[in-house]
Design goal:
This protein has helices at 7-22, 26-32, 49-58, and strands at 33-40, 46-48, 61-76, 79-92, 95-110, 113-123. The protein is an alpha+beta fold. The protein has a six-stranded mixed β-sheet with strand order 2-1-6-5-4-3. The longest helix is centred in the N-terminal third of the chain and has 16 residues, at 7-22.
Length: 125
């Protein structure tokens, strides 16, 4: 069975990723995130999947609320790119931050599953 990705499904994957983070469902988040996936932060810091999971599980970074105001997706065969923006409420090492951020998620079809291979957060100016 061929599973075609449509734009709304790509957006749903990114929304599910954020929901997993808010609910601290790191098992489900890990299933979405590719083993070679990278997370890029507005500070320039880059984390691998194991580093990111360690940070999340330790509680050093907590996603409290995410309110997305705009999302769009573009499809390229077995790749989907989701662009979005929103208000992110995070606790970083005990300090609450509320940030307007843009994000870019790159999803790649691997076998029958879609995996997040790159996620970038950019501060809105």
């Amino acid at each position: 069975m061929v599973s075609e990705m449509i734009e709304s499904n790509a957006i749903s994957l990114s929304e599910r990723k954020f929901q997993n983070l808010i609910e601290k469902d790191f098992g489900s988040f890990s299933e979405l995130f590719d083993e070679k996936g990278l997370m890029f932060y507005p500070t320039g810091k880059v984390e691998t999947k194991p580093e990111l999971l360690q940070r999340l599980e330790s509680g050093r970074t907590v996603f409290e609320k995410i309110y997305l105001t705009k999302t769009i997706a573009r499809l390229f065969q077995d790749t989907a790119v989701v662009h979005g923006e929103g208000m992110f409420t995070l606790v970083l090492q005990g300090e609450e931050l509320i940030e307007n951020l843009n994000f870019i998620d790159v999803w790649v079809k691997k076998g029958e599953k879609w995996k997040l291979v790159s996620s970038h957060f950019i501060k809105m100016v």
